[in-house]
Structure prediction request, 345 residues.
Amino acid sequence: MRLDMLGDKLVRSIILIELPWGRDKDPRVPLGHASLLASLQKFGEGEVISIVAPINDSSTNPHSLKSRILKLSEVRGDLDLAIGAYVWAEDVIKELLVLLRASGFTGRIILGGPQISYTPCGLEELYPEADVFVRGYGEMAIVGLFNDPGMTNIEGAHFAGQTDLNLQTSVDLSVLPSPWLSGAIDPRGQRFIRWETQRGCSFRCSFCQHKEAGMRLVRRELDEARIMAEIDLFCRSGVEEIAVLDPIFNMGPLAKSILQRFIDNGFTGKLALQCRAEMCDDEFLEMASNLDVKFEFGLQTIHPEESKAVNRPNNMPKVNEVFDKMNSMGLDYEVSIIFGLPNQT
Prediction:
């Protein structure tokens, strides 16, 4: 076994694994994975190894992943393995963990992602081979775990064998490095991208998970200078379609400035924006009319009894007023409704 040393200090390594559901038009490196990667590369004290293996690729299976991990671990002494857990990869991850431990893998296993963040209890029963579980936005938590393996009091991180407090992480979005500007994702030659300018949501709809992770945010928007620099990069790189992942884009204080930046760059591509209809004022709609915007409104229901049951009120007179304006302006939008809400008949 070769052990990497820096002076008299053993160099630590972390393998960061993402198992996305791959789609042809998506970037090869998913945004969430790239954000973790950018933070580890900027703040981490050691070697960072990235593995992205689409779960719907025929070559991705527990045995192939085990072989890759064990081969990497053979020449590394102090090793962490961090895996993003999603429902579509659940069976593969569980079998992989069993195979790794049965093969003698002794590195620390860290799990994060939605399957961890939204499981309130019983994580050690579900994943008995894992050592640490991270709930919520993981950038700073994974850096803290990597840099100080002896630390056991990171907010939002549950350590196997300890009492599970079911807490979400706390993260300062203003200090997070950009996965785009750092090169973790290269937008050149990429026609379609997914992008974020803010996280979390101030509303408390009972059916939505955005409210949970966002509860620990001091501020919801990313750094303004970063956002504007990313827009400039996308426009220079010839990106043609941007799906903005913000839960409610026009809730953010930078929404109009962002649209103006695209206008100033002469952007001719498509923007998909999830918005709240009641927050669409005339200036916002007029700015959007200068771009190729597809609005997505999660109205969910128009009935007061159903709205009250899921804590999702709608000001329907205002909603109808906004839709009338959009129709007169020829703006493109879609409305989503949830079937099966309480009190529906």
Residues 224-237 form the longest helix (14 residues). The chain has twelve helices and 13 strands. The chain has two domains: 5-159, 187-337. The mean pLDDT is 92.
